[in-house]
Structure formats: structure tokens, C-alpha cells
Write a structure and sequence with these properties.
By secondary structure, the protein is of the alpha/beta class. 32% of the residues lie in helices and 26% in strands. The chain binds adenosine-5'-diphosphate and magnesium ion.
Length: 238
């Protein structure tokens, strides 16, 4: 049996029944402002705390933005960068190439990296004027390289979700072993953050929708609770 790798994110390991299988690539998707970047930072930070090396590749923000964002949430990435456990990489966008894979690969080997975050794959879609197939092939190549290196990959993408009962799938969703969806559900005049694991190839996981909050330390997921906003919505049907 393949080894399970804990994410060390409270609640998520319970949903994943122990964590990701080694070499899993997961797409973390959902509308803007739902906590994808924060979950990515937390994944790298919690791993670093346990001595697991990680790389955070950002195309949307600068490396300094990520450091500051993490710090504001009580996660000091700088300390682990100094120790060489965490590496932040700014991915500049080129119309020709999704990304240069050489730099991350050499770091993965030299630092025995276990976790990689790619935030995000969405922007590349727009610069790929030559066609969707090229884009998909590059994403797939990256996913396969990560799998060969036995790292756990979390890649972000943006998805608009108008209703939790009506989620559309994009072609890139199928390139990943797993899909985790973050979304906000409205209840009256307020919103509630929710997480669901849509699929995770080759492993068992909880299939419910769980609420979470964002604060110091990042996401706090409640795997024993159901979202109040959805309970109320469903009860109205009867
Ligand atoms: N310091 C903070 N404390 C509490 N909530 C925060 C903090 N910083 C950001 N958030 C929440 O996190 C959300 C953004 O999360 P982020 O991971 O950047 O979203 P995404 O990457 O999905 O667009 C904001 O909309 C806000 O609700
Ligand atoms: Mg983001």
C-alpha cells in the first residue's frame, strides 16, 4: 500500500482519512477569495514545521507578497527560507511556456522536497494563444514530473461556482488525481467558507461539505460539522 502523507492541516487530514497518498497531485479550485492561496501557504508552512521541504511557485503575486501574506496570518516563512526548507519562486509568464521546470526540479532533488504548490495554473490559460491542447499538455507534463519526483502537488485554478448543486468541470480538472473545491455559501447577509473533496484517486475520503474559518494559522476546518448555511437551505425543502 502506498504511504499516506499527512498535510498537517487540522481537519483536512481527517477529510482525507490520513492525508494524501505519496505522489498525489491535487487541484485546489474555487472562486476568488475563497482561501486557495492561504491553504497553499499553510500546506508549505505546516510541512516545514515538521521538517518537510517545500516549494511555493507563485504566478499571481510576488514572492514578497506571499511572505507578507503568510506573516499576517501568523506563519513565518522567512525562518524556514533561511534554513533552506522553504523556497519561494516567482513564475514569470511567458506566452510560449507554462513554466521552466528545470529550477523546481533541481531544488526538489537537492533539498528532498516533499510538497510543491503551484499558484496558479489559471493565468497560463490566457497566454496560451496557440490552443488549449498545448496548455493541457504542459500542465500534464508538470503533474507527471511531480509524480515521478514523489512530491505532493497542490495546484490552484479559478472556477466560478454559481450554485453548489451545479458545479461545472473544466478540462484541466481531469489532469489531476484529486480535486478539492473551496467556496463561499451565502446565508442571509453573511457568507460561510466551505470545503469539499470532489475526488481523490485511489483513496478513500469523506464526501461531505465542511465549514471552515480563516484566521491566525490559516484555515481551520471543522470535519465534524456541517455548514449551517446548507443545513438551513435543505431543511426548507421539506
Ligand atoms: N488575516 C486574515 N484574517 C482573516 N481572514 C483573512 C485574512 N486574510 C485574508 N483573509 C480571508 O481570506 C480570503 C482570501 O483568501 P485567498 O487565499 O487569498 O483567496 P484565493 O487565493 O482563493 O483568491 C479573503 O477573502 C478573506 O476573507
Ligand atoms: Mg489566490
Amino acid at each position: 500500500m502506498t504511504k499516506k502523507m499527512k498535510t498537517y492541516i487540522a481537519g483536512l487530514d481527517e477529510i482525507l482519512k490520513g492525508g494524501f497518498r505519496e505522489g498525489t497531485s491535487a487541484l485546489l479550485t474555487g472562486p476568488p477569495g475563497t482561501g486557495k492561496t492561504i491553504l497553499g501557504i499553510q500546506f508549505i508552512y505546516e510541512g516545514a514545521k515538521k521538517g518537510e521541504a517545500g516549494i511555493y511557485i507563485t504566478s499571481e503575486e510576488t514572492v514578497e507578497d506571499i511572505r507578507e501574506y503568510a506573516e499576517a496570518l501568523g506563519m513565518d516563512l522567512r525562518e524556514y527560507e533561511k534554513k533552506g526548507i522553504v523556497t519561494l519562486i516567482k513564475q514569470t509568464i511567458s506566452a510560449k511556456k507554462l513554466m521552466s521546470i528545470a529550477a523546481p526540479l533541481s531544488i526538489i532533488q537537492s533539498k528532498k522536497v516533499k510538497r510543491v504548490v503551484l499558484d496558479s495554473i489559471t493565468l497560463f490559460e490566457y497566454v496560451h494563444v496557440s490552443g488549449e491542447m498545448d496548455y493541457r499538455k504542459e500542465v500534464l507534463d508538470f503533474v507527471l514530473k511531480m509524480k515521478e519526483s514523489k512530491v505532493n502537488l497542490i495546484a490552484m485554478s479559478e472556477k466560478s461556482i454559481s450554485s453548489i448543486d451545479d458545479i461545472n468541470y473544466e478540462p484541466e480538472d481531469f489532469l489531476f488525481d484529486g480535486v478539492i473545491i473551496l467556496l463561499k455559501v451565502r446565508k442571509g447577509s453573511s457568507f460561510e467558507h466551505c470545503i469539499m473533496v470532489e475526488k481523490m484517486r485511489g483513496q478513500d475520503h469523506l464526501i461531505d461539505i465542511f465549514p471552515f474559518t480563516i484566521g491566525k494559522g490559516g484555515l481551520k476546518i471543522f470535519p465534524k460539522e456541517l455548514p449551517f448555511s446548507l443545513i438551513e437551505k435543505d431543511s426548507k425543502k421539506f
